[in-house]
């Protein structure tokens, strides 16, 4: 959604101002922090309108990720399932079973929601809300990154997009064997960052967290730096990319750093905490890398590679759109 | 949604069982009660797919009502707005302004959500979630009605349906003047039961609350009695109906007791508390009536009128469908 529409229409009026809203609706903010007397809960709503395969699985994880990056435990999920009247029982059952499996995999409970046949939708969609209590005594915002902080990445970059390409544009992948393609297709499901986000939140060592989605890793870093009013310097060679991601992106000519990257967690942390934090995050079994640092000048947004340094702008659209359009 | 599908598919698997879920998803349950350490919050999700006029207003109130009947303060709202790509700015603006006005009218804040243009919807829809803290030390369920309880009704019955008929089937209302029709059309907006529900919850005097929607007052009483495993005896002449509702329903041949009734609150309360509770509820300026009592036998569902007693079954569909189909 365009920032202009959000600012001038959607976020123009927001009901009553309440003191118990610690973080509310705003551009680039994906979760709310709400005070229940002396406790804080995190809530986030996300629709999934684009997915056909893994719809239930994806719906649960994208909303859960948004709660976890704020330092909340994604505990309670309320899905609204809307289906065209022609939807068959098996299709609904598949979505519900996937939601169950996804919720169970992160220890969450489905506590409400709504299910409806309606001719206002052309295919089955899920609008879900995750709610949960904080895992530590403070919530973490994407706006907390500070100059001098180190930028950590947990999880390989661009996996979600790689998986979608391997599934939907298989015919364009002439140099990959069947086995590699099948493996890459499974990346679509590896989108949860709840475990590392909770470890990071509990550690008390992070200044900001964010989960890059559209616009990929670079989009995510820009968003975090916009919210924090800082800049960045990142090192191309430090960014964790799977071989298959590199090869698939090369074949279809997309930039893996600007490609759908759910499943990657971005962390901004003070330099002195880096080693201990990396050690704790590695307990998840996921790849953890220090890829660069936060700088004071918000206009300084630099990617360093063997070819030298270059300024990188915010991706206008995700690279996946090159293939979809 | 059919009970069979809910039981066998939607509520079959619900992720992990968690001890902090005091009331979770289930047939006839419209809200979740969740434990945040020693506090309890209420959450409820509701889509509005059918409304064109007052969409934003209705979306906020229907979700808020479901939180309030459980004894929660509807404090924080997260709307997901989905629009066809052709939706113009004014239409979105109207929905957002109505949501703001509705939220402000009940002291709530819009704290998150999501806005998206998508070709998966054929008209603008809102999927909203309300969350809020309890206003007293316990949550109220629709399943708490006890034999001997008195049934109170707050707010005139069938107003929502009357308003919709006055707007959409005006041509069939030959015996009503323009002024009465215009007045009846405004009933559509009088759907909030937050104020009386909160007063009732704070009083500590109620055993169960419910807000009748589809199937009208009778549908709502059946739902409450099903959930509580009890029966009822209600008195036709005690049910508060506006003259315009009686006249409009007569003209189009629908039963006002089985007609859309958002804006009506149903309460089940011990006999000894009735007088004090009625006094407190009248502070809202709304009509409050004792219309009958809860009986032990779940099969005893009786409507008493001048013509005598008769058993009343659960409405299969709301009366409004007679006109829509």
Structural class of chain A: alpha+beta
Give the chain pair forming the largest contact, with residue counts: A-B, 73 and 73 residues
**How is the main sheet of chain A built?**
7 strands, mixed
Binned strand content of chain A: 15-25%
Radius of gyration of chain A: 20 Å
Task: Give the % helix of chain A.
Answer: 25-40%
Number of helices of chain A: 10
Strand segment tally of chain A = 14
One letter per element, helices H and strands E, the order of chain A comes to HEEEHEHEEEEHHHEHEHEHEEEH
**What average pLDDT do the residues of chain A reach?**
94
Unreliable segments of chain A (pLDDT under 50, ≥5 consecutive)? none
Keyphrases for this structure?
homodimer; 325 residues; alpha+beta; 7-stranded mixed β-sheet; 10 helices; 14 strands; 32% helix; 23% strand; globular
Short description:
Chain A is of the alpha+beta class and 325 residues long.
Helices and strands in order, then pairings?
The structure is a homodimer of 325-residue chains.
Chain A: H1 3-10, E1 21-23, E2 32-36, E3 39-48, H2 55-68, E4 76-83, H3 89-105, E5 109-110, E6 114-117, E7 125-133, E8 150-154, H4 159-168, H5 178-185, H6 194-203, E9 208-210, H7 216-228, E10 231-235, H8 243-252, E11 265-269, H9 274-282, E12 288-295, E13 301-305, E14 308-311, H10 320-324
Parallel strand pairs in A: 4-5, 4-6, 10-13
Antiparallel strand pairs in A: 1-2, 2-3, 3-7, 4-7, 8-11, 8-12, 9-11, 10-12, 13-14
Helix pairs in contact in A: 2-3, 2-6, 4-5, 4-8
């Amino acid at each position: 959604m365009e920032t202009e529409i959000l600012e001038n229409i959607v976020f123009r009026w927001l009901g009553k101002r309440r003191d118990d809203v610690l973080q509310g609706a705003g551009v680039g903010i994906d979760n709310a922090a709400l005070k229940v007397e002396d406790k804080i809960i995190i809530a986030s709503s996300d629709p999934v309108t684009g997915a056909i395969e893994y719809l239930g699985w994806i719906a649960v994880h994208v909303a859960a990720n948004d709660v976890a990056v704020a330092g909340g435990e994604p505990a309670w999920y309320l899905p609204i399932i809307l289906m065209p009247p022609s939807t068959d029982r098996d299709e609904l059952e598949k979505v519900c079973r996937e939601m169950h499996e996804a919720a169970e995999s992160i220890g969450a409970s489905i506590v409400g929601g709504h299910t409806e046949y309606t001719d206002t939708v052309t295919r089955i969609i899920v609008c879900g809300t995750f709610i949960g209590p904080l895992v530590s005594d403070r919530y973490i915002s994407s706006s907390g990154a500070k100059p001098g902080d180190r930028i950590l990445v947990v999880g390989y970059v661009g996996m979600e997009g790689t998986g979608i390409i391997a599934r939907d544009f298989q015919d364009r992948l002439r140099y990959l064997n069947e086995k590699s393609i099948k493996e890459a297709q499974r990346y679509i499901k590896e989108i949860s960052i709840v475990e590392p986000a909770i470890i990071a939140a509990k550690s008390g060592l992070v200044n900001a967290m964010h989960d890059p989605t559209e616009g990929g890793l670079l989009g995510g870093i820009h968003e975090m730096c916009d919210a924090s009013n800082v800049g960045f310097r990142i090192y191309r060679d430090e960014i964790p990319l799977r071989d298959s991601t590199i090869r698939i992106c090369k074949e279809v000519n997309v930039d893996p750093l600007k490609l759908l990257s759910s499943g990657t967690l971005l962390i901004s942390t003070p330099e002195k905490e880096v080693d201990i934090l990396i050690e704790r995050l590695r307990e998840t079994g996921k790849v953890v890398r220090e890829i660069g640092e936060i700088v004071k000048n918000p206009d300084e947004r630099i990617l360093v590679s063997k070819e030298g340094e270059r300024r990188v702008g915010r991706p206008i659209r995700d690279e996946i759109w090159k293939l979809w359009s």
